[in-house]
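Class, carefully examine what follows:
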Amino acid sequence: MTDDVAQHPRKVHLTQQSVAVVRERVPMDSLTDFFARAFGTVMAAAQKQGVNPAGPPFALYRGTPTDTVDVEAGFPITGNFVGVEGVDLRTLPETDALEAIHFGPYDTLQQTYGAIQQQMAADGMTPADVMWEFYLSDPESEPDPAKWQTRVIWPRA
């Protein structure tokens, strides 16, 4: 791992956060299409209810990805959002976790996850079976993948 891929993972305590999401089991090679559809669906539902996102888009992964992954994607949300057909109101839990900012294209994220796993092992922590990513860069406004930033969060079990 090089320093230009990820910052050193650090311990954080996160507070509970409401999120509006679309959840599906998705083939790994269809994630990009799923994200586009999920983010658009959640944004449309929020706007229809007069609610604005309270942060960048994110995705939460359940279990270890194989050919498919159990994923939910959407936005942190504040206000009186009510789940509607296809969009659920969920909660990111209050938790202790390790986080790192990944710099670069999404196909190199595994390097950042590896750094987090190494830090967890060094700290005697057991990783939870969920982890999530906040997409801090918009590929439409920043077309250079080398400049993309992703906040990776992996709670401890």
About this structure: Helices lie at 31-48, 109-122.
